[in-house]
C-alpha cells in the first residue's frame, strides 16, 4: 500500500509543480491583481523559543462546507483546496510578544521561522501572533494581514499527546484504497465524523487527572497542508481539542516515506520539550505501531503509553502488533491495541492520566454518538 500511495503522491506532486510553474510565469508577466491571503498555521514552542509556519496564497474565495452540500460540491471544494495559487517569494513581517521578525516564503508560498524570545511572560496555552504581507504589493495598496496562534505548554502540563489523524481521530478507510479516496473526495468536514467518544477522550487527556493541566496535543499526519483548514474546522465542529498540525507538502516530486515524515516530526516535538513525557495515539491501518515502537527505543522513559486503534482485522497484522507490544513492554512503556475509544480511556483512567469523572463523560458521549450514523455508515451510503 505504501508503494501505491507514494506513486499517487508523486504523480500529483509533479502535476502540481508543473501547474505552479506555469502560473508563476503568468504572474510575473501580469502582476498580482488578485486578492492575497495569509494562511497562518498553528505554531508551538516554549517560553524561550517558538516555531511558526504558514503560507501565502491567492484568495480563491473559498467557502466552508455545509451539511447539505452535495457530493459534487464537496468534490469541487476539494479541487479548490489542491488547486492553490501560491505566491512564491512573498515577504512578511511577524510580530509575537515583544519580538518582530521578517521572513520570506519559498517557491511554494510556504514560510517558516524560529523566534527566540526575550523576557516572555505570557503563560496562556494559546497566544496570538500578528502577520503582515510586505511583498508583493497588491492592487490599490491594500494591507494584507492575518492573526495566528502559537501554543506554549504551561508549567501545569504533566504530559503531551502526539496523535495521528486518519483512522485515529477521523475515519479515512486507509486499508481500502478506493474507499479511502472516495471518502476524502465526497465527504466534508461536517459530514465526516470522529470516532465515537474520541472528542471527549482527547479533552480528558488535555485536562489531565486534575482537570486543569492544559496538556498540549499535537497532530502528526501524512495529509497535505492543502487540507489544513478542513481539519481545523473539523476539530472545531466536533469538539476535538485543537493543536499544532504537522502535515506534508503535496507539491513535491518525491514525497518522503510516511515513517520518515512522522518520525522526524515526533523527534522534533520530543526534543522541543525534553522534560515532558508523552502519550502517542495512532491506528493499526498503516505504520503507526512500528513508528511509535521506534520512538520508544529512541527516547527511553519519555513515552508513558501508546494507544493504537485496531482498524485492521487481518490476523497477521494483529500478530505483528502483538510482537511490538511485547518489545515495548521491555522498555517499561506500554503499547495498547484498543478496539474502541472506551477501552483506551479506561486504561488511561487506571493509569491516572485522566480523571474517573472524565471517563464517565466519555462513556456518556459514546452513548450519544451511538444514535448518529457512524463515519463508516456515512461513507458507505455515499459510495
Q: How would you sum up this structure, described in words?
A:
The chain is of the alpha/beta class and 383 residues long. The protein folds into 2 domains: 32-151, Immunoglobulin-like, CATH 2.60.40; 160-382, Rossmann fold (3-Layer(aba) Sandwich). It has helices at residues 2-30, 71-82, 177-186, 198-207, 228-238, 258-272, 288-298, 315-329, 341-350, 356-369, 375-382, and strands spanning 36-40, 43-45, 49-58, 91-96, 99-104, 110-116, 126-135, 145-151, 160-163, 217-224, 245-248, 278-283, 303-309, 335-338. The strands form 2 sheets. Strands 1, 2, 3, 4, 5, 6, 7 and 8 form an 8-stranded mixed β-sheet that branches. Strands 11-10-9-12-13-14 form a 6-stranded parallel β-sheet. Strand 10, helix 5 (228-238) and strand 11 (245-248) form a beta-alpha-beta unit. Helix 6 runs parallel beside helix 7 (288-298), helix 7 runs parallel beside helix 8 (315-329) and helix 9 packs antiparallel against helix 10. The radius of gyration is 21 Å and the shape is globular.
